[in-house]
Amino acid sequence: MAEMVSILPGEVSTNRLHRYLLGAVGPRPIAFASTRDDKGRPNLSPFSFFNVFSANPPILIFSPARRVRNNTTKHTLENVLKTREVVINIVDYDMVEQMSLASTEYAEGENEFIKAGLTMLESDMVEPYRVAESPVQFECRVNKVEPLGKEGGAGNLIFSEVVKIHIDTSILDENEDIDPYKIDQVARMGGNWYTRAVEGLFEIPKPLSTLGVGVDRIPKDIRFSKILTGNDLGKLGNVQQIPSLEEVAVFKQSNIALQSIIDDQDFNKLHLIAQEYLNKNDVLSAWKILLAL
Questions:
Q1: What separation, in Å, do the N-terminal and C-terminal C-alpha atoms of the chain show?
Q2: Cβ(202)–Cβ(208) under 8 Å?
Q3: pLDDT per position in the chain (293 positions), as tens?
Q4: Cα of 78 vs its chain's centroid, Å
Q5: How wide is the angle at C-alpha 208 spanned by C-alphas 205 and 212, nearest 5°?
Q6: Residue 228, SS3?
Q7: Please, which residues have CB within 8 angstroms of residue 293's CB and are 6 or more apart in sequence?
Q8: Are 42 and 120 in contact (CB under 8 A)?
Q9: How many other CB atoms sit within 10 Å of the CB of residue 35?
Q10: Which residues have a Cβ under 8 Å from the Cβ of 117 and sit 6 or more positions away?
């Protein structure tokens, strides 16, 4: 077991706790929130306390936290409380530096669209502008704002109901779904760090609609392998049934190269070969190799 440090939130500073939370909980999607104040002046600011929480009704929630250093509130929150409207723009890699610049704490009334060199685009159903450079823009009306506290660092959940969505057609695939490579999203990590989703994309087939056998059904000599990882075992456990002895026998006969490894009772080498098949998502062949001894 790894050596752990244990922390009680009340025993560290809010600033330190904030760094632990944001360093551990990530990557976080970014809500590039556009609002207007009660004088009609635009405001634009990014928030990484953000996600989608419902499809019917379509609800996005983001949270402008009170500033830790002086317990003041963000212009975005103040605008939303007055106007009850927001546009949430998705951030891609091509605009990440401009998004970061817009996070600067400019004076009230300063237009971050202009400061960051971004294009204001009229919305159809709400007053705040959309970011023209954003690949997906959500026009929203605010249902409620839920304060989580009154001290510095406290969040304010903004429940934003989507009333219209705008999607750049260039990011859609042949099925009219959003292609994760084409949208090229970025996300926040701790401190100054971001991550680019497209550089780390990988696919995991969803668990079977029927029940997978589960890791607990894997024979012990495989489950406690020195070679196979937890991810490998997860793949092996996500099959509806383990191959039969007859299926394994047919597989062995058609794979002469395995026979010498089987004859040598070389578990580790066999498990390495099975792992190669798992890396190619050929799980049934991996099972047959592992059961060949």
A1: 31
A2: no
A3: 789 999 999 999 999 999 999 999 999 999 999 999 999 999 999 999 999 999 999 999 999 999 988 998 999 999 999 999 999 999 999 999 999 999 988 888 899 999 999 999 999 999 999 999 999 999 999 999 999 999 999 999 999 999 999 999 999 999 999 999 999 999 999 999 999 999 988 887 777 566 788 999 999 999 999 999 999 999 999 888 999 999 988 888 888 777 777 777 777 888 999 999 999 989 999 999 999 87
A4: 28
A5: 115
A6: coil
A7: 262, 265, 267, 270
A8: yes
A9: 29
A10: 98, 101
Q: CA-CA distance, 70 to 65, in Å (whole number)?
A: 12
Beta bridge partners of residue 55, listed in sequence order:
58
Q: Tokens standing for 174?
A: 């042949």
Residue keyed to tokens 């891609």: 92
Give long-range contacts, CB 8 A cutoff, 24+ apart: 225-229. Answer: 225/267, 225/271, 226/268, 226/271, 227/268, 227/271, 227/272, 227/275, 228/271, 228/274, 228/275, 228/278
In whole angstroms, what is the distance from residue 132 CA to residue 189 CA? 25
Residue count (the chain): 293
Whole-number Å distance between alpha carbons of 74 and 65: 8
* DSSP secondary structure code for residue 206 in this structure: P
DSSP label at residue 141 = E
Give me 221's structure tokens: 């000599």
**Continuous H helices in the chain:** 14-24, 75-83, 96-102, 112-116, 180-183, 220-223, 230-237, 245-253, 259-263, 267-279, 283-290
Q: What is the pTM of this model?
A: 0.82
Residue 275 token pair: 């792992």
Which class for 89: exposed (0-12), middle (13-18), buried (19 or more C-beta within 10 A)?
buried
